[in-house]
Amino acid sequence: MSAWTWAVDGWIIAIGALCALSCAIPGAFLVVRRTSMLADAISHAVLPGIAVAFLLSGTRDPLWMFIGAATAGLMVTLVSSALTRIARIDSGAALGLTFTTAFALGLILIVQVADTVDLDPSCVLYGAIELAPLDSTLIGGVELPRAVIVLGAVTLLNALVALCFWKELTLMAFDPALAKTLGCRPKLMESIILGMAAATCVAAFESVGSILVVAMMIIPAATGRLFSDRLVGVIVGAIIIGFVGAISGHWVATTVAPAIIAGGRDASSAGSIAATLGVLLVIAIIIAPRRGIVVRAIHRWRLTLRIAREDAIGLLWRLEEDHRTVAEVELRTLLVLGAEIPGWLARVALIQLARDGRVDRSEAVVRLTDRGRGEGASLVRSHRLWEIYLMQRLALARDHVHPTAMVLEHITDAAMRARLAREDGATGDGAQPLADPHGRTVPAAINPRDHSV
Amino acid sequence: MNAAPVPPSDPHGDSHAPTHGDSHAPTHGDSHAQSRAAGCEHSDTSPLSIHALTVAYQRRPVLWDVDLDIPSQSIVGVIGPNGAGKSTLLKACLGLIPISSGRIRVFGKPYEEQRALVGYVPQRESVDWDFPVSALEVVMMGTFGQLGWFHRAGKRERAHACEALDAVGLADEAHQQIGQLSGGQQQRVFLARALAQSAQVYLMDEPFASVDAATEQAIIAVLRRMRGEGRTVIVVHHDLETAREYFDWVVLLNTRVVAAGPTATTMTHERLRQTYGGRLTLLDEAAQRIQKAQLG
Question: Are the beta carbons of A229 and B128 separated by less than 8 Å?
Answer without folding.
Answer: no
